[in-house]
TrEMBL record:
Annotated signal peptide: none
Identification of the protein by name: O-acetyl-ADP-ribose deacetylase
Matching Pfam families: Macro (PF01661)
PROSITE patterns, sorted: MACRO (PS51154)
Lineage of the organism: Bacteria, Pseudomonadati, Pseudomonadota, Gammaproteobacteria, Cellvibrionales
Source organism of this protein record: Porticoccus litoralis
SMART domains linked: A1pp
Span of domain Macro: 1-165
PANTHER family in alphabetical order: GANGLIOSIDE INDUCED DIFFERENTIATION ASSOCIATED PROTEIN 2-RELATED (PTHR11106), MACRO DOMAIN-CONTAINING PROTEIN (PTHR11106:SF27)
Amino acid sequence: MEVVVGDITRLKVEVVVNAANQQLAGGGGVDGAIHRAAGYEQLQQACRKLGGCPTGQVVVTPAFNLSARYIFHAVGPIWRGGGSGEQALLASCYRQAMVLANELGVSSIAFPAISCGVYGYPSELAAPLAVFEVQKQLDQGSSLQHVIFCCFDEVIAGYYRPLLA
């Protein structure tokens, strides 16, 4: 596992995880960046065929113009103060992405800080949860050899780095 600060769409991995909305509509932040880099129309057509995705779940599309093979669309929770099941829903996103990666036999995956942008999940709470869920899946055996936590800036990366030290 490693932490990278930068553009998730430029990473050389087999899976790019998208912090998606329930409609898979391509929004702002990492979702918008992934849609633009993958090819907005192609990706939207694939997403429309899926018919959306519930919070806490993950669905897959081809990666189109990205160097990755797949995009995993993970719908994280909107932060409502922590008492509305947000932790379980966010954990489910990471867990499901790891299980799906193993099922597809991929060796590398890059995660953004799911729900930490416009959905408002505090990064200092999300990072330990993300690392815990990923490590738990790796400990159970996995095809994954390289997991990247791709952070938008150094502040968010600062929550992940001590956890991987």
